[in-house]
Amino acid sequence: MSTLETSSPGRTFSGLRRRVREFSLISRDPVLFLSLLIAGIIIFLFVVLPIYRTVSGGFFDKEGVWDLKYFARYFDNYYGPNLRRAFYDTMTMGLLTAVFGTVVGFIFAYATVRCSPPGKKIIHWLALLPTVSPPFALALSLILLFGRNGLITKKLLGIQFVQGMNDIYGMDGLVLVQTITFFSVAYLILRAMLERLNPAMEEAAASLGASRIHIFRTVTLPLLIPGIAGSFLLLFVESLADLGNPLFIAGNKTVLSAQIYLAVIGEYDYQKASALSFVLIIPTLVLFLVQRYYVNRRSYISVTGKPAISQITEKDPFIRWGFNGLTYLICAFVILLYATIVYGSFSFTWGVDFTPTLRHWNLTVTRGVEAILDTTFLSALATPFAALLGMVIAWLVVRKNFSGKEVLDFSSNLGGAVPGTILGIGFIMAFNKPPLALAVAIYALLALFYAQVVGKNAAERLAILILGTLGGVALTRLEAKTMYFALGGLFILLGGLVFVANKKFWPAVVVALVGVYVMSTNWAVQIAKPLSDYTRTMERGFWSNALFQFADYLKTLLQPPPSLVAIALFVVGVMVLNSLRQRGWRIGGGVLGLAVPCALMFTGIPFALVGGAYIIMAAYIVRSLPASVRAGVASLQQIDPSIEEASNSLGADAQYTFRKVTLPLILPALLAGLIFSFTRHMTSLSAIIFLVNAKWRIVTASILSEWEQGGVSIAAAYSTVIIVLVLLAIAVLNLITAKMLRGRGGVDISQTM
Amino acid sequence: MYLTLENITKVFPPRGGATEVTAVKNVNLEINKGELVTLLGPSGCGKTTTLRMIAGFEFPTSGEIVLDGKQINQLPPHKRDMSMVFQSYAIFPHLTVFENIAYGLNVQKLPKDQIKRRVDKALDLVHLEGYGSRAPNQLSGGQQQRVALARALVMEPKVLLMDEPLSNLDAKLREEMRMEIRRIQQELNITSVYVTHDQIEAMTLSDKIVIMNNGIIEQTGTPVEIYRYPSSRFVANFIGRANFVPGVVEERTATGFAINALGKVLQVQKARHDFTPGQPVTLIIRPEIVQVQQNGGGYEGTIKRAVYLGNLVEYEVDVSGQVISGVETDPTHMEVLPAGSKVSVRFPEALIQAIPMEGANA
């Protein structure tokens, strides 16, 4: 019946008209539309475009000619067997890790929710520890314990490894280490489900005469199936995406993520890497889609709700202590693994001489200070952007109705779900020599919206658009230094104009300060110089190295890629100029406010980000975005929408409502997003491994190279540094949170995972 | 007219495989300045959607909303001079009572002392003097309700909108707040639109009641009009209780119609509808006008069921195959006639209302 109705042309037309009107209505609230536009552009630039470039890259050779060479190799007799074996090994790894990880996760969840084990809090934090440590820390530790020179295998058991003997390297070690690394995901999902399982259902079954085993089989388990299936699929995806562990411990087995890495690092063959990425992304996407659109929708238990008030506790001592015992055992193993990393960093020569020494730490803090500081700086700088963007997207997705909402939601999650290597390759291919068309398209989109908001009728809009663009293009003709002074000056002028026209102080000051910031691009070197000069007078060592880095960071902060600044300036322009009343001011200000970002957008090669710091930050943000979005969504769904409507009906627009009502209410989620983003940044490897360069070093990449050069203890020291820094950051943020949210409930970090 | 709704229709686009839903169909409504108008109806009748269109949270698919001579169809909520009280109160949990009430005034960037003065006045009005510094979670449901009301009133809006504001309160408090809202509304002479599904609330509060069903307006009128002259079976059933007795128009008379029903000809007053002789009609007879007596003329009947409720006795009487319910409220007639008793049933013909029979061709 309904298909007949919807397929009639009249319906389609009215649907289209509604859509057009929907957009014209959105543009009445410019801030709402602006946030949608900016979120869309960021997602497109840093998620959709790179993934598209990687996926399509495998089908074209260096000259851009259609070429299926690397796919054909899967079916020939020369390369075929090895390639196919790698594919099967990858799938086996994913399958086994997913099964074991889900089982371990279930044991932890059941024990903590129903078996009230002594030390429940500690168990919880131990289960989360692997999520905040670098991806291969556990592989490293497992090798230190059970490798050929392992503490347990060689020192305690005295095993001498000979050719062909089964050692820790290979599929068994890989699955073991991935299980421990990823089981937290399963634990958190299943724990949330168990907590929200209404005890009345099991009690009802019991009162109907069902035995305990019968209840578990017919009530508890079926209700948990969506959670189990969901965590199985997520673990599968995580396992396939993992790069660090396979590189360390896979031995003679090769998996796809490692093949991709070697194709780039070893052969510089991007076509091959892309082709392999395509092979990897297909199972990943299928699993991700099944999890998201099939399993999630089948759930009987809403995970966003509050936990059930009373929980069933396990009374049978055998079951209770069975679960508790297994949990303690795994916890002990986790502690052992982490203790080994720390100890590894202090031992003289692992496997030969276990005497404690500081020599590796001395090397680490002198040679590695650059990497440690670079990583921390970039991670920290990217963190607020990631968390804020996450909250904005969550707000759009939960609260607003617009066409393309599902696409925004899906693609914001995609960046975290695809294997990082695929994203990394895409970043290189997309932002090495991007076509001018990319900048033109983004500029056109932003400029059209800008004109729509600032101008009040078609003539004004056209004038602003044409004069602003021409002015901007003319400004790019200037010599770089002069141009930045001119652009900054123009924005300061715009600030003055806003003040005269609107009589409002703060918006004008903000605009003027932005102008000063644009100008200071020219002064970056001079501002940083005293600091770097000062380091030359210091004694060489940790502090001189560190301060020298800080001088560099200052320069980086003042000299972001102009095309990214242009996007930010559009935001400022729309926010400040949408309320100018007089026609003359409106056109004058409008032209100024468009010319400056236009000039910035088209200086040099727009969006040529490869080799800089900002591309690493973009990769970080994309990777941590899904978690912040999820935290935001979960917390927004718990806030009654009429609270925001109340603000609206009291005269506040979308922007005021978001600042004064929504943001304070989702603050716990925002803080959780901050914590998680920072940890994810500090520990990510696969997405940024191809983006690191001589100037910007990242600790996780350094660990890998130290490991490849045999510096086991230095790798252990680096890992320790990351773990300590991350735990420190969590502690500090938790403290701040506790202060800020006194009496309003603390941050639940598990929301984000 | 102060606030006018002209041919308002709202169609919600299909979501998630469902077909599109027409929530409100061709609604026309006129509200005078200072009036309190209630939108009354069962859930899903379109009353809340209508209110949300007035507030600006939804835009009508077609039709016009005019406030004080200005068309405001697509004006966003924050630019309409209205404020709304929500069913869930929607108190900002992170702000104190004072900050909650001052919220809208802060948006307008009024001077501090003026805000303080107006908020204090609003607190007085809802009898919450001295509660300004409390956090919302320290308040009872009724107090939160008062804060929500004060927060809306302090804006001195052109129209005050209330969406089932009392439905989360217990019965006793609801009664108290009902009087309170009416008192304040009349004191400030503030134009109000009030949505509820509770007929008693509508009867006690309103200048005008709008009965809605399935997205259309069934009837608009004062509480007396609605109760005394229901224009449809739905309205009669929704407000109070009624017996529906089929009949056929015999002829027109000077004051109304002669209608053949229950085997007799009744003289029914002309009210809203016009009939032609021979037309099938439905007579609406309220139970409280039905007298059930052991002897004394009228229709002969047999008691099928009798329920003693303390302050009244309810009877169901079979009158030539038609079940008529009646209530006995006279405390001197309180002995209960048992089921099976032969009784006589009477009612004053002047209080009967006739409507066209639904489903029959006029």
Account of the 3D structure:
- The complex is a heterodimer of chains A (753) and B (362).
- Helices cover 75% and strands 1% of the residues of chain A.
- Chain A has 753 residues and is mostly helical.
- In chain A, strands 1-2 form a two-stranded antiparallel sheet.
- The longest helix of chain A is centred in the N-terminal third of the chain and has 35 residues.
- Chain A is globular.
- The N terminus and C terminus of chain A are likely disordered.
- With 362 residues, chain B is α+β, with helices and mostly antiparallel strands.
- Chain B is built from 8 helices and 20 strands.
- In chain B, helix 2 crosses helix 3, helix 2 runs parallel beside helix 4 and helix 3 crosses helix 4.
- The longest helix of chain B is centred in the middle third of the chain and has 18 residues.
- The radius of gyration of chain B is 25 Å and the shape is elongated.
- Chain B starts with a strand and ends in a 6-residue tail after the last strand.
- The chains are: A mainly alpha (753), B alpha+beta (362).
- Chains A and B meet through helix 1, helix 2, helix 29 and helix 30 of A and strand 6, helix 2 and helix 4 of B.
Total count of strands of chain B: 20
Measured by residues with Cβ under 8 Å of the partner chain's Cβ, the largest interface is: A-B, 26 and 33 residues
Shape of chain A: globular
Q: Which blocks of ≥5 consecutive residues of chain B have pLDDT under 50?
A: none
Task: Tell me the β content of chain B.
Answer: 25-35%
| Helix residue percentage of chain A | over 70%
Instruction: Give the number of helices of chain A.
Output: 33
Oligomeric grouping of the chains: heterodimer
Number of strands of chain A: 2
Average pLDDT number of chain B: 89
The coarse silhouette of chain B is elongated
The low-pLDDT segments of chain A are 1-11, 743-753
Cα-to-Cα separation, first versus last residue of chain A: 42 Å
Main beta sheet strand tally, sense and closure of chain A:
2 strands, antiparallel
Broad structural category of chain B: alpha+beta
Mean pLDDT across all residues of chain A, rounded? Answer: 84
